[in-house]
Every structure is written in C-alpha cells, then in structure tokens.
Amino acid sequence: MHPLAQRILQGDLRAIARAATAVENRTAEAEQILRDLFPHTGHAAIVGITGPPGAGKSTLVDQFARQLRTARQNIGIIAVDPSSPFSGGALLGDRIRMQHHHADPGVFIRSMATRGHLGGLARGTLEMALLLDAAGRNTILVETVGVGQDEIEITRLADVTVVVLVPGMGDDVQAIKAGIMEIADVFVINKSDLPGASRLEQELKAMLSTSPGNSEREIPIVQTVAGEGKGIDAALDAIHAVHSARKRDGVQLWQARLREMIRERILDLLPFSEIEAAARAVASRQSDPYSEVAKWMQRFQRSGPLR
User: Fold this and answer.
1) Among 161, 170, 164, 149, which residue's Cα sits nearest to residue 223?
2) How confident is the model at residue 90 (pLDDT cuts 50, 70, 90)?
3) Can you say whether residue 249 is alpha, beta or left, with left for phi > 0 and alpha for psi between -120 and 50 degrees?
4) Domain around 279
C-alpha cells in the first residue's frame, strides 16, 4: 500500500491535503493512492448541493456542516468554483465564506476549479469524494457551480441531490424545469423570508405532480433561511430520510461513473492543441468531425491506450 494511503486511512490531514492536490493534478501517484483506498470506500453519505447562482448554496453548506459537527460527524466539503479566467484555478470564494471551519480538524474543505468542465462539477470530483470517504468522513457535501440541463452529472456522484431555489425566480423555474425534475431528491427554498416563498412551493408541487417519473417517489420541499440558521434541522432531516429510504443500484451507478471515467481518460490522452487544430480544420470545412474522430479511434485501437 502507498505510504500516503496508510496515513489517509488514519485521518492524517496533511496526507489528505497532499493526496487531494495529486487528484486535482491527475498524477500517476493519485491513481495508485485511490486504488489502494478504494476497498475502504462506500461508507460516507455524499450529498450534492446545487442551484442557481445567488441561491445561498455556500451558506446552506456552511450551516449543514455546523449542524453535522454538533452531531460529532466528520465532514468533507468539496466546493466546485468557476475557474479563474487568469490562472485556471478555483476562485476560492467558498473557502473564504467558510473560514471559521479552518481550525476544525473534523471539517476538510477543498475548492476545485471547473477548468471549463461542464455539468457543474470539476474533473476529479468523484475521485476527491472517494478520497474523503476513505479518510473517514461521515458526510461529504458537494456544492456545484449551478443548475441547468447538464447538471445531471451530480446524480452520478451524490447519494442525495439537494436543489436550492429562492423566491422571486419567476419564469426561471420553468426554464430549468426539465433539469431539476430529473435530479432533485430534496428541494430547499432558501431565503424563504422573502416574498413569494409559499408561491414557489406551490409551483414546485404542481410541477412535481405532473412530471413523469415522480409518481413513485415523494420529493420533500423544505423552506430555510440559511443566513439565520432557520430550517436547517428540517432540511437535514429530509436529506437523512431520503438517504435512508433510497436504495441505489450500485451496478447502474458505477456503469454511469465508469463511462464518465473512460470519457475523461480518452480526453486526457489527446493534447488540447491537437483538439484545437482539428476543430479549426472542421470549422473551416477542410475536414469533417467524423474523419477526425475516426483518426483518433484508429490510433487508440493500434496503441491500446486503455489497457
């Protein structure tokens, strides 16, 4: 076993931080560590927190962490930030907002940059969650960038997906209807002290009643004012109830995860400059996308890169 993996299993924070950096940088060392740690995963509850910008996701995550720490749980927080346009790294806004946890060894916070990755998550988020799971974190809170049609990626990672909305969204609710109906296990109406909270709850109930696939499951709707700590217990109770009742098909879940891992591995094998050159050729009609993809597939078949 990799010596760093041994220390991670013992809860060594420095070892966790070092391995987290290796995971973000997608190094060979990270893969070996994760292989050694994988038999020790599968115990943490992974909770995805998603919603539009300004919904108060970070404040909600902060309050969840406070309450779970009161219950003596060890917490992992993965805060996925939009990439900095200058450095490509995370903007670290969530770390700034959660600074009061920095001295608590029971809360491990990691900001990750999307670096252009779609779906609201950063590449390596699954691996980061597995790392924290093996490190003995009871609950892992994953805050995504935002909600949209491509946000379904969080469902491949989280055991429970919480969609955070705020009153006053109006037509925005209809705009994201298809996406949130598919991914939500719990709805949280945050900033419910604002006008329109009850109306938003009624709209959600109406949408749920007519949405295909929701007839066999009841999706809780909880009102909170995260900035004041109101409704946090009720939201956590709803999350716990869904997690306890939900029996996810492990084979189906890992089918989706493995497909994503294969896709990412293939992209890692192709230099960005090569993809950019092919894109230029296709955009100028000097080539076509099928020929470019066929060339790459032939190369993979000759070299056997996934063995």
Assistant:
1) 164
2) very low
3) beta
4) 254-303
Same domain for 13 and 124?
Answer: no
Whole-angstrom Cα distance, residue 187 to residue 101? Answer: 26
For residue 263, what pLDDT is reported?
83
- Same domain as 205, residue 231: yes
Same domain, 15 and 49: no
The widest CA-to-CA distance across the chain, in whole angstroms, is: 62
- End-to-end CA distance of the chain, in Å? 22
* Residue 299 sits in the same domain as residue 234: no
pLDDT for residue 29 is more than 50? yes
Predicted model pTM: 0.84
* pLDDT (tens digit per residue) in 101-113: 667 889 999 988 7
230, 177: one domain: yes
**48 and 132 belong to one structural domain:** yes
Are residues 137 and 180 located together in one domain of the fold? yes
C-alpha–C-alpha distance, residues 102 and 80, integer Å: 18
The tokens describing 110, both together, are: 């990691």
Residues 6+ apart with CB under 8 A from 54: 166
Instruction: Please tell me what DSSP assigns to residue 80.
Output: E
160: β partners:
47
172 Cβ contact partners less than 8 Å away, ≥ 6 residues apart: 52
